[in-house]
Specification:
With 457 residues, the chain is an alpha+beta fold. Helices cover 38% and strands 21% of the residues. The longest helix is centred in the C-terminal third of the chain and has 21 residues. The protein starts with 5 loop residues before the first helix and ends with a helix.
Length: 457
């Protein structure tokens, strides 16, 4: 079951202020496009800022001539897409300060028949759009202009860590094991992306951050300290330490992207959201308006909510209702540890994992002296009763359908997803949270070992 941040996300929205993202003050620009056999009366110039797009300018056609022009505003250095009035892309352009250029081409095949005046880099860019890295003159341009925006963009866009020379060298004799491959990918996934170049923010370079910072990161490392180390390396590498006052725009942008991912991601990443909030979220240093008023209002609330259910926090005893309508409190449990299991019989993952946890409970409850306090967080009484009968569940089995607990568990434990697993000790201190079921036994073993070590010291 997914619950939670729809209203928050709607409140945040996407504020695309094209005047901020696309323009800076200066001497203007003029882009003339002669479009033979044009089947559109209007062209639009589309800009980019990270994953967002917006219309920068429009140009009406007169005898197949379209002119984008401003006398006072400069275009941010970046890549722009020319669209028809139906928003169909025709081609892309590299545009920078003081752009004055003319393009003549054909509407039906603009990349095949073109003439570009006053812009050698766009001739190369057209060849790249037409034929990729093997386009005429592309490789030579990249060699002779290694720090140009076009070179940085192509290098970042074309890079594949598995096709790199380093990969071929490391694994030339045999295919890597999953462990080796994951560690290699974590280290080299962004090798050819120059995050210090703020111009890349204004290009259609879409990086798969969600995959890297959720699936790949969790598959590679088990511990939060390792996750945080990867995040720190990623964000700090964007800062040019050689500058006296380094530009932090890229770091602020990607901090915001990661916070958006972790805000409503799997609860295992809650600590990462809070870490970013505590160490990188600083609207006073954001001169670009990336952390707008919505983020400034929502992020502190989300961080505070997530923080309440972190390890070492002591919770108020929970009281919920069993099938007889009787109140059962966690304070009545005599075991050393209590697994809090929040689940929903209508949730596919819960239906799979609840029997697995019950099997673990039957086999190990005496060995580790723990009890399970399971709360079905749905009002579906029939499904809860049917599931309980089917699996003959005899742990502490409670449900919202029998009455509301003494406080809102979904809100307090920030249960965006179910199932949710927390482990508390006899003092109601949280000692574990969102531990995968196949690692719960190891958790008990390690926790007991750590207690023995702490006592001996």
């Amino acid at each position: 079951m997914r619950r939670g941040y729809l209203l928050l996300l709607l409140a945040i929205g996407i504020n695309l202020l094209s005047s901020f993202f696309a323009f800076s003050k200066g001497g203007g620009y003029q882009i003339d496009i002669k479009l033979k056999d044009a089947k559109t009366e209007m062209l639009y110039l589309q800009g980019y800022y990270g994953n967002s797009t917006f219309i920068v300018d429009s140009a009406a056609g007169r005898k197949d001539l379209f002119r984008f022009k401003s006398k006072k505003q400069e275009l941010h250095p970046g890549i722009y897409t020319v669209l028809t009035q139906e928003y169909i892309p025709l081609f892309q352009l590299i545009l920078e300060e003081g752009t004055k250029m003319r393009i003549e081409t054909h509407f039906d095949c603009p990349l095949n028949f073109y003439f570009i005046k006053k812009s050698e880099k766009n001739k190369i860019f057209f060849e790249y759009q037409k034929s990729g890295i093997n386009g005429q003159g592309v490789s030579l341009y990249m060699e002779t202009s290694p720090h140009s925006l076009l070179t940085e963009y192509i290098r970042a866009k074309e890079y594949n860590p598995i096709e790199s020379i380093e990969y071929q060298t490391l694994f030339k004799d045999s295919l890597p094991h999953e462990y080796e491959l994951n560690h290699y990918m974590i280290k080299h996934y962004f090798d050819d992306v120059n995050f210090k170049d703020t111009r890349l923010l204004h290009t259609p370079l879409h990086l798969d951050l969600r995959f890297y910072f959720t699936e790949l990161l969790m598959a590679t490392y088990d511990h939060e300290c390792d996750w945080i180390e990867v995040i720190d390396h990623f964000l700090e590498d964007m800062i040019d330490s050689s500058q006296e006052e380094p530009d932090r725009e890229v770091q602020v942008y990607y901090t915001n992207q990661l916070m958006r991912i972790y805000m409503s991601n799997h609860p295992r990443t809650d600590t990462l959201f809070v870490y970013l909030f505590d160490h990188y979220f600083d609207p006073t240093q954001d001169q670009w308006g990336i952390f707008d008023e919505s983020y400034q209002r929502v992020y502190p609330l989300v961080a505070e909510r997530k923080r309440k259910s972190f390890v070492n926090h002591v919770i108020e005893p929970i009281t919920a209702y069993n099938s007889e309508g009787e109140q059962v409190s966690t304070s009545d449990i005599q075991a050393d540890y209590t697994i809090l299991w929040f689940w929903d019989p209508d949730c596919d993952e819960c239906v799979v994992e609840t029997p697995m946890l019950y099997e673990f409970y039957k086999n190990f409850k005496s060995k580790y002296n723990f009890e399970v306090y399971a709360v079905s967080v749905t009002d579906d009484l029939e499904r809860w009763e049917q599931f309980s009968r089917e699996y003959k569940i005899d742990w502490i089995n409670l449900s919202y359908s029998m009455g509301e607990p003494n406080y809102d568990l979904l809100d307090f434990f920030d249960l965006v997803f179910t199932p949710g697993l927390f482990i508390i000790d006899q003092n109601h201190k949280i000692i574990g949270r969102h531990i995968p079921l196949n690692k719960v036994e190891n958790f008990f073993k390690e926790y007991a070992t750590n207690i023995i070590k702490s006592k001996s010291n």
